[in-house]
Amino acid sequence: MVRPKFQPIKQKKISTKIVEQIKSLILHGDLRPGEILPPERELMKSLNVSRPSLREALNSLRGMGFIETQRNRTAIKSLASGRMLEPLHHLLKEDIGTAYNLIEVRKAIETWNAYLAAERATDSDINRIEECNSSMKTKMNEGISVAQEDADFHLAISEAGHNIIQTHLMFSIYDILKETLKKYYESMELLDIYGQHCKVVDAIKKRDGHLARRRMLEHLEYVESSLKEFFGSH
């Protein structure tokens, strides 16, 4: 009789378990790109771990590129960020044509995001999309910049598609574009943008993927033509 070859059980370090849990939350979309992690003391309490174990785990996650430090706070890093972003930032400063190229990329990704959102969004996802759009209208009425609310709206649609890679790609694209588009937001026809957003939301709520994709394409084509008109006159 051949005896089974038992393997010794290896006890995982606490820090390794912390890393695995945070990575899992990121990869399942429970921790979003740009989201700020709670302070160390709060994390220690939630995870029931010591400060040294937590710091060892955070250092590992930082080294792997899952998190980064922003103004003394720990934020979830986009999985799509990296060396590609720096040259793109420089290109945007020197050549507005790069922004048009990025909008073409947005057309490809975001129309699919809208389609997937119509197919997969939960009631909670739809509520979040509507809240982002409602927040944008409130800021419009108050005469406050809506750049962040516009980005949040598009990112919420991406998250509603439940494809983690597309969500992180979208976050990186908006992170690259935000400085370039700051002045553009001040001159754009916000009421038109808001109306187009409403049509996208309506298609998603109807669970009509093809209509949602078409509405998003119409919206992005409007943004593209407005952008060309704005920068062509400056």
Account of the protein in words:
- With 234 residues, this protein is mainly alpha-helical.
- The protein folds into two domains: 14-76, Arc Repressor Mutant, subunit A; 85-232, GntR ligand-binding domain-like (Four Helix Bundle (Hemerythrin (Met), subunit A)), CATH 1.20.120.530.
- It is built from ten helices and two strands; from the N terminus they run αααββααααααα.
- It has helices at residues 14-27, 40-47, 51-64, 85-94, 97-120, 123-142, 147-160, 164-187, 190-205, 209-232, and strands at 67-70, 73-76.
- The mean pLDDT is 87.
In short:
This protein is mostly helical and 234 residues long. It is built from ten helices and two strands, in the order αααββααααααα. A hairpin with a 2-residue loop joins strand 1 and strand 2.
